[in-house]
Please model this.
Amino acid sequence: MYRLFGRYPSLRAWLLLLPAALWLFIFFIAPLFIVLAYSFLERGTYGGVEWVFTLENFQRTFDPLYFNTFLRSFYIAAVTTVITLLLGYPLAYYIATRPPERRGTLVLALMIPFWTNFLIRTYAWLTLLRTNTGLINVTLLNLGLIKEPLPLFGNDFAIILGLVYGWLPDMVLPLYAALDRLDVSLVEAASDLYAAPRNVFWRVIWPLSLPGVVAGSMLVFIPSLGAFVTPAILGGGKSLMIGNIISNQFLAAHDWPFGSALSFVMMAVMLAATLIYFRSTTESDRRQL
Model:
């Protein structure tokens, strides 16, 4: 065996990779191909599939009902990404500019609330945002600040709020990693050359932190686009996203072929977003993250 490893050094690496490769093939690649095959089949009479080739499932994805839902999902994911960036960048910059002995504590303080189960945290927002019994509306009504309950629940506002809360750390951590590696001497040099603080930010800090911005945006946009738990709870069944439509096709309508087709269309959009990320950052930038 040792002689075999000596003659073929790469064989040892392949043997080490074999368990992980088998795991990925059995639980990721193989199911992916099954879903792809289902997307080209017809729905069975009582659920399941019939092995009849068709392109109708992909054609249905362009039906205005589903296509508009997809556009809404894209809009909500984009707004969520922008808001998390606006909130996360100052927070990441603040953490990155603190003394080294305090940074770990601040990052830990950021992560502790998110150690709680995501579903529980989403239901916590439900108790706050409900129209008639939510804590916010009840408090404002009792104080006489409003005469009618505010529409905080069952709309896009509630979904975006829940998504921003859920994915904010995914934006802050890549930004913090990029800003933590920022060469402070460059900022000091720009200040010594009498550059205004605004110019220092846009010409020095922002370009150097751009890899973190792109990475954080990807980490927020992709899961927000496919979210279904937050819209199902905070949307109140009135404001659905494409993830809810896909879930309903599998669990309620039992239309597995159409659900598979929707899944692959959404996957194609996510793949396009990933390719944009790789094209917008250089190899050296990605190596820094």
User: Anything to note?
Assistant: The mean pLDDT is 87. The first strand starts at residue 42 and ends at 43. DSSP finds 14 helices and two strands in the chain. The longest helix spans residues 64-96.
